[in-house]
Acetylglutamate kinase
Amino acid sequence: MTPLVIKVGGALLDAYEQGQALFSAIKKLKAERPVVLVHGGGNLTNDWLARLGFESQKIDGLRVTPPDQLPFVVGALAGTANKLLVSMAHQQGINAVGLSLADGKMVNACLLNAQLGAVGQASAGDPKVLHALLGADVVPVVSSIGLTEQGELCNINADDGAVALAQTLGAELVLLSDVPGVLDGDGQLLVQLTATEISALIEQRVIHGGMSVKVKAALAAANSIGQRVYIAGWQQPQLLTTLADEASVGTCIVPDFVMENQP
Ligand SMILES: Nc1ncnc2c1ncn2[C@@H]1O[C@H](COP(=O)(O)OP(=O)(O)O)[C@@H](O)[C@H]1O
Ligand SMILES: CC(=O)N[C@@H](CCC(=O)OP(=O)(O)O)C(=O)O
């Protein structure tokens, strides 16, 4: 059965009840197919950096990560955020193992540009460690801290990291956030989006900030994996079990070739 990569945004860490409901849904789902969880922790990282007196800047939804902030970003994401989620999983009776994208070279990274500091661009890596864990009935819980070929730690946007991990495994991908999906200018859910519609909505700034990183990542994944990718809310975890029925789940990002083949 094709594995499913589920990415959860870091806001889940502040939502205990929803977190428990999500892991309860994942427990049911993993009886049917292998599941890997990739997580963010943007809010927690903001909080840590502010408490330490750092200014945190974002460019096009990506956190500028100077060398003096990197140890705290790694600590927040690969440390506290990762272990809190592993603990939530264990509370629901899931045998979870906490890792980062760097472990076992499951995702490769290179630095994006000097302006962003230690921010990595992710690409597919080696699936061996994940296969071993999935074979042992474990749910890997993976933070978005990566490692370059030269062994430098880097901060990867968790949506981009999830895309690379889905590519590593040839898996389907769902991006779960604190909103039910991509919303239009009136706050209504958009059930399906193509590349052209995404460009227009970003241009009009209807899609902005973290959501703009997410839709671009989802489109890249849809095109590379050749499958629809869903952006949905972790408030409705029961939707995860309806993916196989192609039921309406949040916003469906359609790969380009599907549109090209439509009459
Ligand atoms: N068109 C849009 N539809 C929905 N959310 C949007 C849109 N444009 C911007 N956003 C913002 O993007 C946020 C989700 O992105 P982000 O905070 O990065 O999520 P996550 O932490 O789950 O990855 C939403 O909470 C919302 O504030
Ligand atoms: C480079 C970059 O932007 N990294 C992100 C990684 C965490 C993340 O993506 O968290 P959410 O999924 O909760 O937004 C950051 O530092 O916030």
Summary: Residues 76 and 137 are 27 Å apart (CA to CA). The longest helix spans residues 70-91. Residues 9-11, 40, 42, 159, 177-179, 182-183, 206-211, 214 surround adenosine-5'-diphosphate (ligand 1) (CB under 6 Å).
